[in-house]
Amino acid sequence: MLKKLASDALGLSDIGKIIDKKDFNKVDADDYIMHEDGEQIFFLIKSRTDEYCFTNLALIHVDGTSAVSKKRLVTRYDYYKNIIRSVAIETAGTIDLDCEIKFIIGETKFSIDVDKNQIEQLKDLYKSLVRISHISDENDIMLGKSEETLKIAASACASSKVVDGNAAQIFKDINEYAFNWTKISRENYIKKDFTDVFKNYINN
Asked: What do you get for the CA distance between the two ends of the chain, in Å?
């Protein structure tokens, strides 16, 4: 108990360890994974107080108040709702005990300290998050352009004085076309599952 309290006071409890794949089922975060829907863990960092669980669908943060408290707050950040940006990695200095990965997901900033001896593994997470960030940015731009194109087409139809056929049917056809266009655009440009990215960069 005294060691745990001292560790908290010195800030050592904040230094995370990257958990091996075979031990994923032993952490608290595993209880909140949607295994039933095909969600799986690809990377997990655990400190005395927190767990940072990166799945193919989301970041799940199990936030503890202290190393000696059992109280936890579990927050889920789905990638498609929370774009990742400003990804950075900080290597350890000569006397440092830890390296650090930093990023913003949605509106939340994260700065996670990791044992400096695990820097090579942390680089894999860094590359994965950078790639997810790039894909999300590109898709967001393309989705915006798709919506803009639909608005231009709708405006052109509205201003056209040429009406041939039943007005109600024309209105129905236009609405159906617009709905399908939007549906296809969202399917193409909103990526929810990043299994391919994690498999490309992370070797478990």
From this structure: 33
